[in-house]
Design goal:
There is one protein chain. By secondary structure, the chain is of the alpha/beta class. The protein has 2 domains: 183 residues, 3-Layer(bba) Sandwich (FAD/NAD(P)-binding domain); 117 residues, FAD/NAD(P)-binding domain (3-Layer(bba) Sandwich). 25% of the residues lie in helices and 26% in strands. It contains 7 helices and 17 strands. The strands form 4 sheets. Strands 1, 2, 3, 4, 5, 6 and 17 form a 7-stranded mixed sheet that branches. A 5-stranded parallel sheet has the order 8-15-9-10-11. Strand 9, helix 5 and strand 10 form a beta-alpha-beta unit. The chain is elongated and about 65 Å long. The structure holds flavin-adenine dinucleotide and NADP nicotinamide-adenine-dinucleotide phosphate. The site of flavin-adenine dinucleotide has 38 residues, from helix 1, strand 7 and helix 7.
Length: 312
């Protein structure tokens, strides 16, 4: 009979590794299923400037390797597969892995993160990391005093545009409609800034392609009501939403309409199913930062520890 684990953590981003570190120290002998993206989203960025204590700006891969080493040294067992199916209700949870095996556990910590939604253009793919970004907090610094474009009309796009307006020469906000999903207060602030010429709205505009010289972005081509036009920019920030990686849990857990896992039922990281906890971007609609993910990973491990104590 296959043994029932105390806790299985799903995902190897900052939330998953931090949950593993705390679970090890609580004596829970955690198993961590890494998923396809070992180290999570941060591994796609060349420089991290806001991880506390690391003002040497580590690259995402080495930072995440150090988190993995920490979790490994404390005794985490790793499974380099993905969870393809989950049966979460009841006291014994069953996960089916991509290799076909099943793993059973008394508690589960879901840290499956989110995937940035991109426009899906070939040219966008070509210039990712060479002028196309989805994170102004992370990459805005590289475009100081330059002209950039932000694509999107939600709060994230407005927050990105406001942040970039403090760094860049000019920010174009490109949106496919002429009304916004973004909070009023954000729209007001950016509209005020547009009066200074620092920000310009290009509305009813669909992105046709990103233009570049083969190495880096030089502009963005948009289709507007008056035809095709090119805007000269060196950076393009895509802010058209994120997709939480939670498809596997549909029908098992209460999710918001955008797929984000609902938490806060009993403890902060508890989900709608007892013994199942969620941390990081998969359960976050606001902050979506590495450090907040790590922080909630810690909370989820502590919540799982208390749950297991109550079970026994
Ligand atoms: P993620 O990092 O998204 O990791 C999710 C993990 O879950 C992955 O390991 C994946 O393989 C795994 N997974 C998914 N589905 C399954 C499954 N079915 N089975 C098993 N495993 C699964 N934040 C900052 O604070 N500073 C920055 O400088 C910064 N730069 C960024 C740059 C870029 C380009 C991007 C995209 C994001 C950046 N962020 C930054 C945001 C930060 O990366 C995220 O907030 C953070 O990584 C979220 O951590 P997480 O652990 O919740 O999930
Ligand atoms: P969002 O609210 O879903 O907005 C996404 C925007 O991108 C929309 O304007 C949408 O256009 C546009 N869009 C989507 N797909 C597109 C495509 N293929 N091509 C062009 N444009 C596309 O996402 P978000 O801005 O990331 O916000 C997510 C959640 O976090 C929201 O609940 C938001 O309130 C919250 N948030 C809050 C703050 C804050 O400071 N309060 C900051 C960031 C995020 P349409 O409008 O035409 O659909």
């Amino acid at each position: 009979m296959e043994k029932v684990r105390k806790v299985v953590i799903i995902g190897s981003g900052p939330a998953g590794y931090t949950a593993a570190i705390y679970a090890c120290r609580a004596g829970l002998n955690p198993v961590l299923v890494t998923g396809n993206q070992l180290g999570g989203q941060l591994t796609t960025t060349p420089e991290i400037e806001n991880w506390p204590g690391r003002n040497d700006n580590p690259d995402g891969i080495s930072l995440m390797q150090s988190l993995q080493k920490h979790a490994t040294d404390l005794g985490t067992e790793f499974i380099y597969e993905s969870v393809e199916k989950a049966k979460l209700k009841g006291t014994e949870k069953v996960l089916t892995l991509s290799g076909g095996n099943e793993i059973r556990a008394k508690s589960i910590i879901i840290c499956t993160g989110a995937s940035v939604r991109y426009l899906g253009l070939e040219s966008e793919e070509q210039y990712k990391g060479h002028g196309v970004s989805a994170c102004a907090t992370c990459d805005g610094f590289f475009f100081r005093n330059k002209d950039v474009a932000v694509v999107g009309g939600g709060s994230a796009a407005f927050v990105e545009a406001l942040y970039l307006a403090g760094l860049c020469n000019k920010v174009y906000l490109i949106h496919r409609r002429d009304s916004f999903r973004a909070e009023n207060a954000l729209v007001k602030r950016l509209t005020e800034l547009s009066k200074t010429g620092k920000v310009e709205f290009i509305l009813n505009a669909n992105v046709d392609s990103i233009i570049g010289d083969g190495n880096k972005v030089t502009g963005i081509r948009v289709v507007t009501t008056t035809g095709l036009c090119t805007v000269d920019v060196e950076g393009v920030f895509v802010a058209i939403g994120h997709n939480a990686n939670t498809q596997v849990f549909e029908g098992q857990l209460e999710l918001y309409s955008d797929g984000v896992i609902k938490t806060g039922f009993t403890t902060q990281t508890s989900t709608s199913v007892k013994g199942v906890f969620a941390a990081g971007d998969c359960a976050d609609r606001v902050y979506k930062q590495a450090i907040t993910s790590a922080g909630s990973g810690c909370m989820a491990a502590l919540d799982a520890e208390h749950y297991l104590q109550e079970l026994s």
